[in-house]
């Protein structure tokens, strides 16, 4: 939708901005490919939030400055003055006091994090189901900072496949088989089968060390810590008074091959907990070989090289910037999209603080099966070791 033209400064020309909403579908021209990464051409977007109890009584500027520290105070002052921050669809003065249940809109020049440019391959297309080879680092659906750089967004832009209903989830860094229903009734049928526990899942992982030859069953509780973005294993003991916070979890592992340094392991999760395979492999003493989050017992600093792993999917685009993500002079980023003088990410293509060098996890979904059906995905290149 179009908003009125904005004053960007005395003596400067007014900008006519087209704000995007979820009703604006991703298009092929929205993507920029550079150095093995798929970028999204920055665009204007309306972020909506509703006033929380702790916000009531604060000025609109102080609210943003305290709650969203990723931008300087002066930015929020200017954003309110020019209407990029509105309350209930109306412009307000910088001294405006927010009230309970009000809707606050923040119109932003949105920069999405890049993902690996490996493409989303359609494996099988049926009347009511589509299966695809999901590449690593690409989230399944819009979340956090991602909207167009998602499997659903790319399929809509490049394959004209919409609407789509993901049947199951794969973590952003995980690759492999993804099943998407093409209508709500088919999605509901899959949901019923998942809830009934009749689906079987198979993954492959590349782990450290020589994994045991016999089948290994890890049956220990999983406790997910959302703040750390990490799961831990918990083993109950005979003490009846001891409390176990984690949820019952079970995974079966079978070694496929080993070269003495690494092993390729077939993973069959019986339950479906967050990071279950990753945590259970760590518990077995054979963590995924490139899984920095689970290679040690303790949480490492995940922001050493910027916003890595699942942080970008979790955080909003109001996250504080860190690091330096400036374009190299020869890249001429500003020529690929319209520069916004109020944007705190311009002239960079990716949002500040994001690690553009992240790679996928050596964990890959190869098969899902249920009553009368089975879908498969080819093995990744890293699954071949000698």
From TrEMBL:
Annotated active site residues, numbered on this chain, are: 171
Question: What is catalysed by this protein?
Answer: a uridine in RNA = a pseudouridine in RNA
Protein name as catalogued: Pseudouridine synthase
Name a single GO biological process. Answer: enzyme-directed rRNA pseudouridine synthesis
Query: Spans of biased composition, class Low complexity?
Result: 315-326
Molecular function (Gene Ontology), one example:
pseudouridine synthase activity
Q: Which residues form the Pseudouridine synthase RsuA/RluA-like domain?
A: 128-282
Question: Key word Isomerase present in the record?
Answer: yes
């Amino acid at each position: 939708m179009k908003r009125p033209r904005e004053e960007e400064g005395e003596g400067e020309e007014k900008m006519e901005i087209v704000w995007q909403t979820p009703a604006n579908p991703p298009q092929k021209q929205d993507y920029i490919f550079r150095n093995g990464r798929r970028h999204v051409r920055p665009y204007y977007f309306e972020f909506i939030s509703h006033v929380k109890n702790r916000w009531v009584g604060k000025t609109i500027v102080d609210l943003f400055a305290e709650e969203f520290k990723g931008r300087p105070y002066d930015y929020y002052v200017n954003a309110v003055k020019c209407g990029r921050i509105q309350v209930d669809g109306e412009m307000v003065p910088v001294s405006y006091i927010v009230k309970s249940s009000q809707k606050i809109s923040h119109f932003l020049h949105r920069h999405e994090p890049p993902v690996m440019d490996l493409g989303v391959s359609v494996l099988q297309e049926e009347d009511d189901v589509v299966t695809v080879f999901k590449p690593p680092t690409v989230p399944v659906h819009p979340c956090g900072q991602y909207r167009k750089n998602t499997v659903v967004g790319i399929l809509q832009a490049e394959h004209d496949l919409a609407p789509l209903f993901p049947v199951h989830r794969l973590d952003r860094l995980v690759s492999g088989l993804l099943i998407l229903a093409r209508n709500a009734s088919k999605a509901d049928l899959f949901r019923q089968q998942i809830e009934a526990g009749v689906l079987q899942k198979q993954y492959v992982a590349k782990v450290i060390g020589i994994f045991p030859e016999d089948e290994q069953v890890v049956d220990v509780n999983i406790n997910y810590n959302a703040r750390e973005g990490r799961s831990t294993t918990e083993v109950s003991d005979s003490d009846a008074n001891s409390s176990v916070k984690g949820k019952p979890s079970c995974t079966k592992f079978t070694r496929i091959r080993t070269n003495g340094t690494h092993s390729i392991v077939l993973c069959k999760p019986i339950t479906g907990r967050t990071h279950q395979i990753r945590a259970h492999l760590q518990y077995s003493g054979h963590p995924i070989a490139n899984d920095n989050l689970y290679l040690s017992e303790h949480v490492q600093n995940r922001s050493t090289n910027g916003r890595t792993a699942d942080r970008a999917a979790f955080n909003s685009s109001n996250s504080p910037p860190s690091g330096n993500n400036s374009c190299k002079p020869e890249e001429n980023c500003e020529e690929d999209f319209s520069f916004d003088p109020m944007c705190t990410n311009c002239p960079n293509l990716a949002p500040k603080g994001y690690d553009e060098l992240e790679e996928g996890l050596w964990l890959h979904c190869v098969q899902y099966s249920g009553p009368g059906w089975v879908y498969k995905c080819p093995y990744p290149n890293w699954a071949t070791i000698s």
